[in-house]
Amino acid sequence: MATPIHLEDVRKEFSTLGETHLAVDDLSLDVPAGSFATLVGPSGCGKTTTLRMLAGLEIPTAGRIRFGETDVTDLPPQERNAAMVFQSIALYPHMTVRDNIGYGLKVQGVPESERNERIDDAAGTLQITDQLAKMPGELSGGQQQRVALGSALVQDPDILLLDEPMSDLDAQLKAELRVEIQHLHAELDTTVVYVTHDQTEAMTMSDQVVLLREGRLAQADPPQTLFDRPASEYVARFIGTPSTNVLSCAVERGETEATIATGEFELSVPADALPSSIDESVRLGIRPQYLHPGGGEHRFEVTVEVVEPLGTESVIHGRTGDGTRVDVVTSETAGVAPNETVTVGFDREHAFVFDREGETVLFGAELATGDAREPYDRTESQSRSTL
Ligand code: ATP
């Protein structure tokens, strides 16, 4: 039965050659029963270490992990009813696919008839029934990854832990398996925690995206919330393709109004909408999808460097006068060519304002209405998640 996962101030330090390295830093997180959470972030941010602590392969230096009401922090892997599929596919080359899938059950002493029934069920779900008699060497990468998933599924785990299971597959297979894993999750009564550094996988598959930065939680929310209401410049830049554009702006405070301006555009907000901690400058984030050639309320010039056609739309890569990189996603590319200057614009409801520390202090909607917001609260974010 699917089980909720709770991490409370989980910390993991590694000591090597007398030096202590902090891999996971006081991570607190709730993953509701039966939901799909994805741990995402750049290399070294602590994703695999977190997953290995959930599997029982690493013991936290501090903090507690609970599966439902059970504190599993110090339990060995075999007592957790959690199955893990690793990044590198570890199949036994001299065993058939059937024996590979059933190996774990055999070790547990499950009788052969029950074993075969569970293998046939898992193979049917994964659409590899016709591969059961083959040897792993005869399978494609995608089929091998399905066999590895099969070995986890036959164990009927409460919790399924997947560590970059698609990283070695080509783009087309990834796209296929992404959909299959979602189908699988819909059929199974299992809580899934999935690790990837690919934000597209995270955004398309998850109920909850957990973005880490240097071992700490940057934001944990449903995918659309990370896109629309990123807690920080780091989140805004990591989530979304191409990355969010960020422009440096000067701030001038008047009695009733404050202006946020570059040399080319100026937008005014009620003075009390900007937190008092903001003094002379802010950084303004605008997603490439919300910058329009020749349109938008606030405009500036971009010198085009490269235009990438993607079929129905194109990505314009360019720079502002001060050399800031700007990307624009648009279907309006008439007259747009390298070395040309184009005017692009945005509407204020699509901008984010970041303070000096990179925290988001205003979102587009609040820029439009002038309502200030409280700084991002991670506890509130978790409870807001509708999973
Ligand atoms: P990647 O995407 O590259 O797999 P990750 O986000 O999964 O990265 P982790 O593998 O969890 O990151 O590693 C987090 C940090 O902890 C890294 O700096 C890594 O070097 C360090 N680390 C991980 N395992 C160990 C270990 N056994 N001993 C020492 N340091 C470790």
Provide the residue-averaged pLDDT. 89
Q: In percent, how helical is the residue content?
A: 25-40%
CATH topology of the largest domain: Rossmann fold
Strand content: 25-35%
SS field, number of helical segments: 10
CATH class of the largest domain: Alpha Beta
Number of domains: 2
The unreliable regions are: 372-380, 382-387
CATH superfamily of the largest domain: P-loop containing nucleotide triphosphate hydrolases
CATH architecture of the largest domain: 3-Layer(aba) Sandwich
Detailed description of the structure:
Helices cover 25% and strands 33% of the residues. The protein is of the alpha+beta class and 387 residues long. A six-stranded mixed beta sheet has the order 6-7-8-3-9-10, sandwiched between helices. The chain has a six-stranded antiparallel beta sheet with strand order 13-12-11-14-20-21. A hairpin with a 4-residue loop joins strand 12 (257-261) and strand 13 (266-270). Helix 2 crosses helix 3 (112-126) and helix 3 (112-126) packs across helix 4 (141-153). The two termini are 17 Å apart. 38% of the residues are buried. The chain binds adenosine-5'-triphosphate. Adenosine-5'-triphosphate (ATP) binds next to strand 1, strand 2 and helix 1.
What's the short story on this structure?
This protein is of the alpha+beta class. The protein is built from ten helices and 21 strands. It has helices spanning 47-55, 97-107, 112-126, 141-153, 171-187, 199-205, 223-228, 233-238, 364-369, 378-384, and strands at residues 5-16, 19-31, 36-40, 62-67, 70-71, 82-85, 159-163, 191-196, 208-213, 216-221, 245-253, 257-261, 266-270, 281-286, 292-293, 298-309, 314-319, 325-330, 341-346, 351-354, 360-362.
